[in-house]
């Protein structure tokens, strides 16, 4: 924490005032981004817009990292003393927006349904605040505008490969994500393990199709698939440690037969989530072996591809508890909550694997306004008053972390 109490209060009040002052500007930025969403690794106009705003604020940056990524630096006094990184993601999702609002997506079939427009507009607001206060703190603040969070292999991993965490290397990194289950004005933290690893599963069960009235002349891939699905669920429940959260779900299954036709094959797609790397690797082997054994035992065969995705996300204990204490000092204890484990995944996890990290949640819900739709839905929206909380708190956390 910052040492001199009078300086602390003056700086805190200055950040609060600037957050209030720039709230409408950040809302306008968010609405612009929301109107013109772009899919993962295609965020060309979004990237240009970010650069335009950074130019306006007088913040130096480098663009073209992983094509659409942008990294900016704000140097305080004695910039070599310490560096803190702040991250936002740029991409949107392939969803048709159902909201009837003035800033509705103009790109049909693409929508900021995961709040990345909030994250990016917030980080731009933070950039403006911190650049105006750079004579009031020591160290360097690195701002990372990252592409491709929603698509493997994840923009975070690619930016790390291109050296985003070097020159200068951050002592810690912070990121935030909107949270539809939490009221606007509140935030949440969880030290330690927080979010799951994620792997994509692609399985094709091959049999021999034919007339459904003559099953003895076929090798039924639908029946084989049913046995495989049941066995895989039992494999997870009987092999994972009861205290190790695990999720195996198949959300897509295609069997192009008919009421009287047994198809030649069944195609499945699913996801596997875990919070233990040893069990994750073991489960991969066990799932493939079991599926192959069942299929072969019933006269068929299976092609089983596992595309390894993001690792688990772990919040550094010291950084997160420090950030939580700073959030309480800035927002009040009544507006800071403790979070539970989540089996969702985030490519910020890559940052958390190589630098002390804190990934926290920003409340955006307002039941009275009917703003409570979940992430990745066509009606997702936010209470925009949350943006004042977002920019003020992240600016404060960054300065607090530099002290």
Overall description:
- The chain is an alpha/beta fold and about 400 residues long.
- The chain has two domains: about 5-195 and about 310-400, Aminopeptidase; about 195-310, Alpha-Beta Plaits.
- It has helices at about 5-35, 45-55, 115-130, 155-160, 220-240, 275-295, 315-330, 350-355, 385-400, and strands spanning about 60-65, 70-75, 85-90, 140-145, 170-185, 185-190, 190-195, 195-205, 210, 245-255, 260, 265-275, 300-310, 315, 335-340, 355-365.
- The strands form four sheets. An eight-stranded mixed beta sheet has the order 1-2-4-3-5-16-6-15, sandwiched between helices. Strands 10-12-8-13 form a four-stranded antiparallel beta sheet, with helices on one face.
- Strand 1 (about 60-65) and strand 2 (about 70-75) form a beta hairpin.
- Helix 2 packs parallel to helix 3 (about 115-130).
- The longest helix is centred in the first third of the chain and has 31 residues, at about 5-35.
Instruction: Give the C-level CATH assignment of the largest domain.
Output: Alpha Beta
CATH homologous superfamily assignment of the largest domain: Zn peptidases
Order of helices and strands: HHEEEHEHEEEEEHEEEHEEHEHEH
Strand order of the largest sheet: 1-2-4-3-5-16-6-15
Instruction: Provide the low-confidence segments as ranges.
Output: none
CATH architecture of the largest domain: 3-Layer(aba) Sandwich
Please tally the helical runs, counting DSSP H or I stretches of 4 or more residues. Answer: 9
What order do the helices and strands come in, and which of them pair?
Elements: H1 5-35, H2 44-57, E1 61-65, E2 69-75, E3 83-89, H3 116-132, E4 140-146, H4 155-161, E5 172-183, E6 187-189, E7 192-195, E8 197-206, E9 210-211, H5 221-239, E10 246-254, E11 261-262, E12 265-274, H6 277-297, E13 301-308, E14 313-315, H7 317-331, E15 336-338, H8 348-354, E16 357-365, H9 386-402
Parallel strand pairs: 3-4, 3-5, 5-16, 6-15
Antiparallel strand pairs: 1-2, 2-4, 6-16, 7-14, 8-12, 8-13, 9-11, 10-12
Helix pairs in contact: 1-3, 1-9, 2-3, 3-9, 5-6, 7-9
